[in-house]
């Protein structure tokens, strides 16, 4: 296990947070719940039918895992009332709210809203929309944060990487925002810097990436990145951020010396902000497959309370890591 991962798990364990996993029907999620509790990373509640979960996972020790069935929970009716009050202005009826409160994901998010859990991890067997829709309807974004975005924690291989000074990078947005405008891109940068501090204990050096470095090309796409840089500096004047930078100028000292002399970020960036989803998604997968990095994510940022969406191809260990990161996210001050 990498030092970065060890740190994430050990720091999460100290917090004693309670994480809810709505997908009790998925064997990977059940195994992850048991492992997270055994490792002391967090208290865990699985959502589902206890008898079915135990029958389908006979070799998993669930003695220390809380299991809640929405169909029999004494709190379901009160959760339905919370949902109705939140959504009645949008046309939701009491009957609609009551019906949705039986849904595992809605039930889990309502646990979060009611203060009965600290964070939620879902998406192993459900779509991103099924995870994020209840989150956006019920938890909403944190005050002053206009959007939920995503990032990947890219952990360098055990053998190291000559350009990765801190053992990891934050890549954003690689999973949600298709083509963010300058304001959205700026908020993604600021949120990613906060995630870097809280999750990876980095001192963020944020690079706004482009196909251009410091005016080497003229294009509307470059103008977007420059406008986002200006907005990010306005939002967070203390943030160490620079752009526009090509990827090599952002992480290779010798290239930075030539292309962006005097920059406090160029050549040493550890938070990489991509101009659109195509660039971010392609980059993280190439870094993972060709560079041997471990890609942890996509992880969500910007919710008022932490909610994370898993990849449907995830392993049980990936879910354990997501539980630990979700616990740490409770400490972010948006």
**Helix/strand/pairing class, anyone?**
alpha/beta
Domain unit count: 2
What is the succession of H and E elements?
A: HEHEHEHHHEHEEHEHEHHEHEEH
Q: Largest sheet at a glance?
A: 6 strands, mixed
Rg from Cα: 21 Å
Poorly predicted spans:
none
Q: Please tell me what the overall shape is.
A: globular
Explain what this protein looks like in three dimensions.
The longest helix has 19 residues, at 182-200. The chain is globular, with a radius of gyration of 21 Å. It has helices at residues 3-15, 27-38, 50-56, 76-87, 94-100, 104-113, 128-139, 182-200, 220-235, 247-251, 253-259, 277-291, 316-329; strands spanning 18-21, 43-47, 66-68, 119-122, 149-155, 168-172, 206-209, 241-245, 271-273, 294-301, 307-309. The chain has two domains: 3-140 and 303-329, 3-Layer(aba) Sandwich (Rossmann fold); 149-294, Rossmann fold. The protein contains 13 helices and eleven strands. The chain is α/β, with parallel strands linked by helices. The strands form two sheets. It has a six-stranded mixed β-sheet, sandwiched between helices. 45% of the residues lie in helices and 15% in strands.
């Amino acid at each position: 296990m990498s030092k970065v991962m060890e740190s994430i798990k050990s720091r999460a364990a100290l917090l004693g947070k309670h994480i809810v996993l709505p997908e009790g029907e998925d064997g990977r999620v059940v195994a992850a719940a048991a492992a997270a509790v055994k490792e002391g990373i967090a208290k865990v509640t699985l959502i589902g039918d206890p008898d079915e979960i135990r029958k389908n996972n006979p070799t998993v020790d669930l003695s220390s895992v809380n299991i809640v069935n929405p169909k029999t929970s004494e709190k379901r009716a009160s959760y339905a009332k919370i949902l109705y009050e939140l959504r009645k202005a949008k046309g939701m009826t009491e009957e609609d709210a009551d019906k949705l409160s039986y849904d595992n994901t809605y039930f889990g998010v309502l646990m979060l809203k009611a203060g009965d859990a600290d964070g939620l991890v879902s998406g192993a067997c459900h779509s991103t929309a099924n995870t994020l829709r209840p989150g956006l309807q019920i938890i909403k974004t944190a005050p002053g944060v206009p959007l939920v975005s995503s990032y990947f924690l890219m952990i360098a291989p055990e053998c190291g990487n000559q350009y990765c000074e801190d053992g990891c990078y934050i890549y954003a947005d690689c999973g949600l925002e298709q083509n963010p405008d300058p304001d959205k891109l700026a908020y993604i940068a600021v949120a990613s810097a906060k995630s870097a501090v809280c999750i990876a204990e980095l001192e963020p050096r944020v690079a706004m990436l482009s196909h251009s470095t410091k005016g080497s090309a003229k294009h509307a796409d470059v103008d977007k990145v420059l406008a986002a840089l200006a907005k990010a500096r306005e939002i967070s004047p203390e943030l160490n951020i620079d752009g526009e930078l090509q990827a090599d100028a952002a992480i290779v000292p010798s290239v930075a010396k030539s292309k962006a002399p005097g920059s406090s970020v160029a050549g040493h960036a550890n938070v990489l902000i991509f101009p659109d989803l195509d660039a971010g998604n392609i980059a993280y997968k190439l870094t993972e497959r060709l560079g041997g990095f471990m890609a942890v994510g996509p992880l969500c940022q910007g919710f008022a309370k932490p909610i994370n969406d898993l990849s449907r191809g995830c392993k049980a260990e990936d879910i354990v890591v997501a539980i630990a990161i979700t616990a740490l996210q409770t400490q972010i001050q948006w």
